[in-house]
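User: Hi! Is it possible to get a structure for several chains at once, not just one? Here's what I have:
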Amino acid sequence: MVRTRFAPSPTGELHIGGVRTALFSWLAAKHAGGQFFIRLEDTDQRRYVPGSGRRILETFDWLGIELDGGPDHAMLRQMKTDEDYPGALEDGSYRGIPGPFVQSQRLPLYKQWAEWLIERGHAYRANETPEELDRMRKEAEARRETFLFREHMRLRTDIDPNQPHVIRMRVPREGVTRFHDLIKGDVAFENALVDEQVLLKADGYPTYHLAVVVDDHLQGVTHTIRADEWLPSTPKHLLLYQYFGWEPPLFAHVPNVRGEDGRKLSKRHGATSVFDLRDKGYIREAIINFLALLGWAPGGGDEQNVFTVEELIEKFSLDHVGSSPAVFSDDKLDWLNGVHIRRLPPDELARRLQPFVERDGIVLDTPEKQDRFRRAMPLIQERLKTLTEATPLIDFLFQDIPTPPKDALIGPKMEQHLSLYALREARRALESLPAFDDKPMEAAMRALCDELQLKPTQLFTIVRNAVTGKSVTPPLFGTIAILGREAALERLDRAIAALSH
RNA sequence: GCCCUCAUCGUCUAGCGGUCCAGGACGUGGCCCUUUCAAGGCCAAAACACGGGUUCGAGUCCCGUUGAGGGCACCA
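Assistant: Yes, the chains can be modeled jointly so their relative placement is included. Here is the combined structure:
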């Protein structure tokens, strides 16, 4: 059974690169019919940002990525404050995966295994102060050497286990640690260049290196899929697996996502969290599709670009994840968003659009307005790249418009009197229309064009401006039908009046 | 400074020694469709970083150069 995990630290906003790594992990697991869970790595008390753990869970919730384990979603949603997040489910395990899923709640485990390593001679106690270590580093630098801690460098060896101290791992002075990375291929590191890492800090918290090994093993992780920057510390982890006598998981280090300037993605690059994108009107289907394509392609001659989540699960494979970093550029995201918006059922589009148009001041407080809103969906669906673009396309259906200026009511290559005449005739045609629907309306208007010897563009431009106050709208007659006869005639009357003098 | 990784159109990528004078998608330009705007259709411009090898043959393998990114914490 394949089991993967995403292990973020709750130290701030989760950006797109992290979400992509998580997405790859999730897809890899689901493709194999396996499990995916989240573990919060909150072992640095200083960097902890209240509420960020919760935000991370909400991100996955919103994306529709279901977890087979992790800090409880339901509990998170009920919390009133961002001050803290709850731990694992009560029994400490979920769907067969042992919890807790928050590292700060697993402290005794790390302590226990660190002591175990000392007993077997794979680790030792040390108590150099940060200042002392700093000095040692500076001295090494002065000698133009890379500073690596080694047991013999300890300033004191008579360490009282009951006094604050750290536990460091031993590293062989010779030999090479090799492994096969699922994405990078064969990689080798010389042990002599590996630091004797602190595993357990003086405050009793583990470092990442100990925690990730203990947890991934205890929680049955089969594929450790993580960001590129962990590649150089993998030898430490492999050494630990060896000391513990545990079989290591498969490793896959996914390349970074960079900004358009080629630098690592950060706040400077604008909208980089999933919630930023959501607020800019991107829908989850598009975000997932886009992220999947950032570094992955189906390969094998398959040139598909648009994917549903189900298709991604079916086709995703770690061996088609590229080994070079990708630049986050939202051109393709815009396009994919349009594609996925068009695939939404109209009622679903309406549901997702409502918060956006309400944010823009459109009030949909009556069943009648709700109905108009829903009826407008097919008209605007293929015109949206993001959900923020709907308002200017439909606002005139819900609120009154100012009377257009004269020049907007004069058709292209037309005189004022002809335009006025056309407007009056159009009004009469609409008034006498038996059924106020788009098809008969268009037929009547086209007949009017013939009668007046006008091009459709000429007549329709005048009517569009008169009825909507805009020169760009969704298809005219469908729009007018939704507006309704009464309002349409009233607006035409005002336009006629404006043009009359 | 030391270590590691990466390098195909502007961007995301296909390519796993010959079928590649390099394919697809976005974006860009043009044309068509058309009541505006979109959507859609068609066409076009656009790339194997550089230098050495290996091989009958290299985008594909090896080495080097250059460039980019990452790591070298009691941060993850």
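Residues 79-91 of chain A have pLDDT under 50 and may be disordered. The longest helix of chain A spans residues 16-31.

User: Great, thank you!
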